[in-house]
Amino acid sequence: MDAILLQILNGLDKGSAYALIALGLTLIFGTLGVVNFAHGALFMVGAFCAIFLQRLLGTSFEIIDETQKDFLGNPLKVQAPYIEYWFGKDIGASIIDWSVPLAILLTIPVMLVIGYVMERGLIRHFYKRPHADQILVTFGLAIVLQEIIKYFYGANPIQAPEPSAFKGSVDLGMMLGFQANAIVYPIWRLVYFAFSVVIIAGVFAFLQFTTFGMVVRAGMVDRETVGMLGINIDKRFTIMFGIAAAVAGLAGVMYAPINAPNYHMGMDFLVLSFVVVVVGGMGSLPGAVLAGFLLGILESAASTTWATTTIPGINQIIIYLVAIIVLLTRPRGLMGRKGVMED
């Protein structure tokens, strides 16, 4: 039982990233009808927002430290971060330590702007074009964003450590009545799962309980009728594109301490996230979230020693096998809407 619970936790960890990216993909497809292959790149940009803020806060200048001496007894020249000089050593060090969570404050406006510019400057010209054209142009945009990141940050992964308060692991087994050290799990991964649940719940609450969200949901069902009521649905959909970009960016920010960001991490998650969307059902927000967590758990279970020994390589193909089975039995996906991509 403890091994099963551990695999479920591992699955919820990666499934959280799948669910957040797939949620943004579905928001864009459901509102604009656009297959956005640049969405994984937005996840990557969010992760590098954390790297950018970390480096910005760590910007330092040279000072003479009277408390440190060289072998001749002369004071040493050391690098002191500006943030510690402005706010004091303790507060400054604490701000640097919390750079990843603080990057959320930077990521939200940055991703909203990027989403708005993408939609207004490029995506809107492809609304009535075939999905193949949309895939090609957004995939090209993803490559451009990827190469920009590679130019400024290089090809190697860059570590973005979590705050010291969340380092280490917690013994969940003891809390659940198991033996000590039966289920030991990294604290930050639990934080990421909780963060994902909050973001997902926030998006659904926004769509369900606000007037703006209700109009958007109505526009997703019948865009022309909503427009005939005098509502500028295009403007609202543009805002939703920005929100979807922000969701992907936030997913990337908080994932940075789990997997050191690199310039191709967006592509690594993109294909799997599209499989998640298809399994959940194109245009279905609940389906995207459900499929994200479900496939994350299945992938984790397939990565166990027993599974990989029994069927070598099963962990690499399990998601695609599940997708084939689901689509053969339910062509619209688990919770797909009738008429979506069926013309």
Task: Indicate the topology.
Layout: H1 2-32, H2 39-57, E1 60-69, E2 75-81, H3 82-87, H4 89-97, H5 99-121, H6 131-153, E3 169-171, H7 172-175, E4 184-186, H8 187-209, H9 211-221, H10 223-228, H11 233-255, H12 265-280, H13 285-302, H14 305-310, H15 314-329
Antiparallel strand pairs: 1-2, 3-4
Describe what you observe in this structure.
By secondary structure, this protein is mainly alpha-helical. The chain has a single domain (2-329), classed as ABC transporter involved in vitamin B12 uptake, BtuC. It has 15 helices and four strands. The chain has helices at 2-32, 39-57, 82-87, 89-97, 99-121, 131-153, 172-175, 187-209, 211-221, 223-228, 233-255, 265-280, 285-302, 305-310, 314-329, and strands at 60-69, 75-81, 169-171, 184-186. A two-stranded antiparallel ribbon has the order 1-2. Helix 1 packs antiparallel against helix 11 (233-255) and helix 8 (187-209) packs antiparallel against helix 11. The longest helix has 31 residues, at 2-32. The protein is globular, with a radius of gyration of 23 Å.
In short:
It is found in: Cell membrane. This protein has 343 residues and is mainly alpha-helical.
CATH class: Mainly Alpha
List the secondary-structure elements in sequence, H or E: HHEEHHHHEHEHHHHHHHH
Give the fraction of residues assigned to helices: 55-70%
Could you list the spans in which at least 5 consecutive residues all have pLDDT below 50?
A: none
Strand content: 5-15%
Mean pLDDT: 85
How would the global form be characterised?
globular
Biggest sheet, spatial arrangement of strands: 1-2
How many helix segments? 15
Let me know the number of strands.
4
